[in-house]
Amino acid sequence: MSRVMIYKRFERFWHWFQALLIFTLLFTGFEIHGTYSVIGFGEAARLHTLAAWALIVLWLFAIFWHITTGEWRQYIPTRNGLFAVMRYYLIGTFTGESHPYRKTTRAKHNPLQRLAYLFFKLMITPVIWLSGLLYLFYNDWPVTLSGALELETVALVHTGAAFAMLIFIIAHVYMATMGPKLASLIKPMVTGYEDLEEHR
Amino acid sequence: MKNFAWNRSINRFSGLSAHVALAGALVCSGFSVYGAQRPPATADHSKFEALQGPFENAQEVTEACLGCHTEAGEQIRATTHWTWTYEHPETGQTLGKSKVINSFCGMAITNEPRCTSCHVGYGWEDMRQPPPTADNAVDCLVCHDTTGDYWKFPTLAGHPTYTPREWPKGSGNMVQPPDLEMIAQNVGASGRANCGNCHFYGGGADGVKHGDLDSSLVDPPRSLDVHMSPDGLDFDCADCHTSWGHEVAGSRYQVNAADTLGIDVPGHTDLSRASCQSCHGDSPHPQQKLNDHVDTLACQTCHVPEFARGGVPTKVWWDWSTAGRLDEDGQPITEYDDHGHPSYLSEKGDFRHGENVVPTYAWFDGTVKYTLVDEKLDVAHPPVEINRIEGSPEDPGSRIWPFKVMQGKQPYDTERKTLLATHVFGADDSSLWSNFSWPKALKAGSEMSGMPFSGSYDFIETTMHWPITHMVPPAEMALDCASCHARNSRLAGLPGIYMPGHSGNIWLDRVGWLLVAMTLIGVVLHGLARILLKGREKS
Q: Which PANTHER family is this protein grouped with (chain B) (predicted)?
């Protein structure tokens, strides 16, 4: 066992700031959607737009970081060990088996995580952004676009993606509690360090 | 264009002198701001020899006015204020007060001396004829009196009274003849009260007709009208309703529903300021998202959140079918509602009044089409639309506008299936208000107007749309987002708009929340199972 920096400072900043922004966006977004009325439509819309811009800027940095550090490779999907991980979450976790995946700094996400995060990064987020930006700039659509696309379609796609995001968050937050102890997996995301059995 | 500007300036200058003279000491104190806003006059009408009098009647004042303002009479006679006719450029209909029927007192014709008391002239007693043609038949004073003492007596076809006369009838209140010399020497630009003389009292009493025009606008608090309030900009009607040779901008028959010209720059645009955009432009908000609304909404939709806000109620329902009911002694009845507004008059039937009324919203391109008196009605599908507003979400020239929708029941010819001319006013043996008999009143209405009537009539429900544009409060009192962007939206039911917070897809929501719930249940069950099984493991 060795204590290693598994989540770099930027990565942690990115993760938690993104979490804050996504919670803000979900909360204000469903208020804009009309699900409830807490802070008022106008304020919700203002905060929603603000948080969206902040998230976009954050992502620009994150993309740069992923490319320059090569960390993007962490998300390359693999089938190797995928079913073992799935079996663990469905059965093993109840029968006291240990997690089949041994994380390393170069492969810190298990195959299921890789898939989930890749889906988050390549599907949910781009769809929510693209539809969100179209939504935000609805009035500035070029004629060719406004002739082909209805605001309603954009709104429904955006709402659908928001549901996907909410579901992802619920599952993600829950699974973050599935380490040996409740906070085992969360702590490294705060401190950056985790005790790993390094086998290089 | 130069002439136009010059004329306007003169009007303004002369207006000031009168205001100053009357305001007296106030000028030196609180009203000094007002004085600073209006440039000083170049003419003091009290110094004009022609205005020293004495004047036998109001026409003699007109003659004196025309002595200097040589073109004014001709100009007036070319306007809708005079002709009471309007050729609609879009629909081809001939409209105007002399032609249309409304959902208040019906038609002006056959009720002349009463209705024509608001004609900008003297002596139009028979509307089958055009207005009188004499030069001195034009009424300058109703628009240019600044003393407030000039009043066109309600039953004298446009004249003020020249002898002490009781009004309202039976009230014991005597109206004294106006001091024409004093009035003539204090003429000036039209103020709010001048226009209000007629436009605030349409439909028979204060505030009845428009809903956004009533006597509360003579001296409105800022919260009622930010532009017209003396505590605000102290605008006169004419500051927006600019005129060109006495032709006043702003029409309710052909509304400028979407002014895309923007700010009115003299010499470059149309010199008409009867739209919000002509001063505020078309992107007036500091927040871009609010400006994004201007291609869909009229300014008034958010900025006139309610009408009839000044303490004067407006009529929203008028059922003529119940008129004529008398008490046991054969005397006319007056009943009042809980707010003290009349709810029944034997002369007029049942009413409902409203204050702080939330408008009805509709797409509007500015064109208003009327159901004229000779038009066949679709009696099987009431209500009859006394006027129809045109516009649609697909039309780039349409905006969502606020309206007062006047409702009620009006007489129609059951055989000819047309609306009817109603003879309501007159000290004769046929008018409704003197005789309380619909058959007589309708027969007389037909005979006097020459409009056909089969003799059989009934009442049909009608609606009439009145665009709302006045009573603009300060911006902080405008509607908030959630007035429309909410489940319970003011714009609910309007076609062609997707409004976040209001619109949505019920199935997307159902499926979305179902999946969220299933995920939650899934993690809760999974978590519970972990806890339970772990506990068993240890034991």
A: CYTOCHROME C-TYPE PROTEIN NRFB, DISSIMILATORY SULFITE REDUCTASE SIRA
